[in-house]
Write a structure and sequence with these properties.
seven-stranded mixed beta sheet, six-stranded mixed beta sheet, alpha/beta, 24 strands, 14 helices
Length: 493
Amino acid sequence: MTDPTSSLTFDGRAVINGERVAARDGQTFDCLSPVDGRLLTQVARCGEADIDAAVAAGRAAFEDRRWCGMAPAQRKRVMIKFAEQLIAHADELALTETLDMGKPVKYARSVDVNSAANCIRWYGEAVDKVYDEIAPTASTALALITREPVGVVGVIVPWNYPMIMAAWKIAPALAAGNSVVLKPSEKSPLTALRLAELALAAGIPPGVFNVVPGYGAEAGSPLALHMDVDCIAFTGSTRVGKQIHVMAGQSNLKRAWTELGGKSPNIVFADCPDLDKAVEAAVGSIFFNQGESCNAPSRLFVEASIKDAFLEKALKLVPQYQPGNPLDKGTVMGAIVDKVQMDTVLRYIESGKAEGAKLLAGGEAAMPVAGGNYVLPTIFDGVTNTMTIAREEIFGPVLSVLSFTDAADVVQQANSNIYGLQAAVWTRDINKAHGVARALRAGTVHVNSYDEDDITVPFGGFKQSGVGRDKSLHAFDKYTETKTTWIRIDSPV
């Protein structure tokens, strides 16, 4: 069989002011594939000097209004062309995402590429349909309330959904007229670099969208601390998110928007209207993307009276999620992004065993492809809220099963966590569904479903799951300033 990746070549250089450039000091780092350990390319190990150059390019583009000065309808046309570029290069982008991050190529193509393109297109379509306002003042004044781009937006995204996470931030930021400096994760930088080339091909002017790869301490911190960055948007761990907010305050009080961790509760009551559907959602959602999702339903609460029946059904589904070669179109669970993350997942599994949880499935590494990083789908029963695997975000294919006896009990357990990103409630009782959903401290609560999604609804969390919302028209609030222009009218009438 022909290797579909054999014709791919990767350029690991940064994109600054419309050009591919090496790091100023010439340093690089190896980009290794989690699929089989192969060296994909060497990537520019950018630092403070490179961030300075990218921010300067973004500032110059903003000040001369080469992008923000375009009419919204004109920016819309370019953004739509940008989205079309993604679709035209979909196979290449999907294979790159799979090789770089480890997810199954079937999902990289059907989910990641399509979702990123749809996001870019949607914000392009939206930007000339968002109206400004006129305040209801006395007739002696005209008060205009307008949105203006904030200026230079720094964006730092994680490795688990490189294209989608980038699109959620760069699309509204660019559509609103800002310049962007994107720092992708050093674990999966390749599609972000390719996006910058496709943006240029679509007509986004040089300097407007810059991509600077590198490590967090060497490139991410200088971006967050930069005195000429007006806004920083970050998706990643709560630990780093807290540092981002500190850096924003230490520098120029730039806006800081952070979408952070999750330990989402998935609550199944005994009166669940479709137990098979609930089981499929619980298993499929935790093992999707190898469990490397901030909104993964990693805490499964099942009412005690149906827990045994639920687990019996769940265990029958586990064989469907055995890890395989992500380049095989039949694979549904791929590789963990790197050995560091795989070892982290395995340490959490060992802590679950040590703290008394009952291992029902998985619990160890696998090797479907030599040289790769794979973990078996893992389920623990007998978990309590005080166990490490119930409290901390694992970011791997590990499901913790807890039980409860009534609504008040499960709400208390579900909310006893520092995170508040997503949740779900399964019940046929509409009063119970509404009551529990309102009581749960989470940015999104699903009822009789999990992880159903649309670009039109906001995404973000309560508590230490972050600040601000991605997606929907609400995202424009992060990347625009609200200005009042008060015009005095001396009426001749």
